[in-house]
Design brief:
The structure is a homodimer.
Chain A: H1 19-26, H2 29-41, E1 44-45, H3 55-67, E2 71-76, E3 79-84, H4 86-92, H5 96-103
Antiparallel strand pairs in A: 1-3, 2-3
Chain lengths: 104, 104
């Protein structure tokens, strides 16, 4: 249940996801690590990734991934949760996410 | 045979090619079109791509692709030629180039 602490979240429809945005979003090791953690561990709250970056930087990474259409965010009580849009991306760009995450 | 009109070209060794550089270089439709033309038509001189962009812009795209380790340039007489480093990239990042070019 959302407590309305945040502005409404916007997510691009899968049809309007842009390959250039996706590639630029993928071109960062911290963002790829976020994606790997979501792939292996399922949905996860923003504060629980345990990555060695400042909260504001992490917030920027989540926003970049969300705006590119790579992950979806939703509020669960006081927590902002993250989930990968893997099935949608797989439909749009088959094999892309896994190939990139395997690459490094 | 080079006539020495240009500065010496530098190309990163395949071992030092960086996935972030590669993804950023791939995140542009003109650069992906350059790669497709090289994949299907083989080595090609800079002036023969027939793309609707200014020469200076095209030159920037070639340089971005070369610096990222995606293509190799060499001089042949008065022509600067371009060749994809597909086998090297395939060794480093299996499936990446083809998956991205198939994506859009």
């Amino acid at each position: 249940m959302s407590i309305g602490r945040w502005a409404p979240l916007s997510h691009p429809d899968v049809e309007s996801v842009d390959i250039d945005d996706v590639l630029r979003a993928l071109a960062d090791p911290t963002r790829r690590q976020i994606m790997r953690l979501l792939m292996t561990g399922g949905d996860r709250a923003c504060g629980t990734f345990g990555l060695p970056v400042a909260a504001s930087t992490l917030s920027h990474h989540f926003r970049t991934l969300r705006n590119a259409g790579i992950l979806r965010q939703y509020d669960d009580g006081r927590q902002r949760m993250n989930t990968l849009r893997l099935d949608e991306l797989e439909t749009r760009f088959p094999g892309l996410v896994r190939t990139v995450l395997d690459a490094g």
